[in-house]
Design goal:
The chain is mainly alpha-helical and 110 residues long. It is built from four helices and no strands. The longest helix has 18 residues. The two termini are 21 Å apart.
Length: 110
């Protein structure tokens, strides 16, 4: 809930009250909610499945992210080991930062 309220350590009661009949089933693989940064298809397999964004600026973002992710993989042989670690860490950081947008209780559109 910290993504919603930008709070850490405080109680957020009302939105967290649950009953078993209101639990939302996830339509995404569990790996989508905890990306390790190793999969460039994560953008389409996770964000793309959550949002049907054909012919929108969001579709361009997914295409752009996937293309650049794949370029780093394609040319990984030209990077030093420290550069590769940075690239892998940055990829994971970017994907993890997008996880709040694909959680089952998030209702957004393109």
């Amino acid at each position: 809930m910290r993504e919603v309220y930008y709070l850490e350590g405080d109680l957020v009661i009302d939105p967290c009250i649950c009953n078993d009949s209101s639990i939302l089933p996830s339509t995404l693989p569990i790996e989508c909610l905890s990306p390790d940064g190793s999969n460039c298809d994560w953008y389409n397999e996770c964000l793309g499945r959550k949002y049907s964004c054909q012919d929108t600026p969001t579709e361009h973002v997914l295409t752009y992210a996937t293309a650049f992710c794949n370029l780093y993989v394609k040319y990984q042989d030209i990077f030093s080991d420290p550069a590769l670690r940075w690239i892998d860490d940055a990829r994971k950081c970017l994907q993890v930062a997008l996880v709040p947008f694909i959680r089952p209780f998030t209702n957004s559109n393109c």
